[in-house]
Specification:
Pfam families: AsnC_trans_reg, HTH_AsnC-type. With 154 residues, the protein is α+β, with helices and mostly antiparallel strands. It has helices spanning 3-14, 20-27, 31-43, 77-86, 111-122; strands at 63-71, 90-95, 102-108, 127-134. The protein has two domains: 3-43, Arc Repressor Mutant, subunit A; 57-134, 2-Layer Sandwich (Alpha-Beta Plaits). It is built from five helices and four strands. The longest helix is centred in the N-terminal third of the chain and has 13 residues, at 31-43. It is elongated, with a radius of gyration of 20 Å. The model has no long low-confidence stretch (mean pLDDT 92).
Length: 154
């Protein structure tokens, strides 16, 4: 992946529906070259998917919480991971170092629904401790970061 691919990715991050002709003008390439480069990045797994990002409050999910989770023993990791993958309100899950084993991000309609989700998490095999943090306001929420341009990091 070269600097031109990074520029194409930056445009797609801003708007995944951007037309190849608009991207081509911005990076000084033909439409066919832009499309070819995008396809190569898809085939190489650099671009994993395209998605819709919704406004949580406008779709009715007014509560966002981060839940730290400890398991009794690593033998529960696989079953816990499988269960979390199935829950529609868990929007991300991270396996961690430190005091807790996992951090999950949950979006839901209300604190009552969060309580139900929290009970569900505590009912999973091996879960021995949780700590829940309510998100009061989202300051930054991006879904991936591109390699930084060394000149812009100064």
């Amino acid at each position: 992946m070269d600097q031109i691919d990074q520029k194409i990715l930056a445009h797609l991050k801003q708007n995944a529906r951007a037309r190849a002709s608009d991207i081509g003008k911005a990076v000084h390439l033909s439409v066919s070259t832009v499309i070819e480069r995008i396809h190569k990045m898809e085939d190489a797994g650099v671009i994993c998917s395209y998605t819709v990002i919704t406004n949580d409050a406008k779709v009715g999910n007014d509560v966002t919480a981060l839940i730290e989770i400890s398991l009794e023993h690593p033998r529960f990791n696989d079953s816990f991971s499988e269960k979390v993958m199935e829950h529609p309100n868990v929007i991300s899950c991270y396996y961690l170092t430190g005091s807790y084993d996992y951090m999950v991000k949950v979006n839901c309609r209300s604190s009552d629904e969060l309580e139900t989700i929290h009970r569900w998490i505590k009912d999973q095999s091996g879960v021995c401790q949780t700590q829940t943090h309510f998100v009061l306001r989202t300051i930054k929420n991006i879904y991936s970061a591109l390699p930084a341009d060394p000149a812009s990091a100064e």
